Amino acid sequence: MSSTQPEIIVYATKTCPFCTMAKSLLDGKGLKYDLINVGTDRSMWQAMQEKSGRNTVPQVFVGDHHVGGFDELSAADRSGELDQILAK
Is 68 helix (H, G, I), strand (E, B) or coil? Predict the structure, then answer.
């Protein structure tokens, strides 16, 4: 992996179990990320929907790459794709 990590953004809510699992996965890899709580801010939720094309949380972005929700993040981690995205 390169010495500088690309920006990671996680759109989430405080009560979402999949959001918690996504944060745990990223934490477990020692990755830093910006957490945007869309649970109480309708305009942020709308911005997330426009950016991701989805209306569920979490939505994970690595740089300009939309990884997706927790299932896609977990699959990308298992397959090694996440490490490849991070290395760009």
Answer: strand
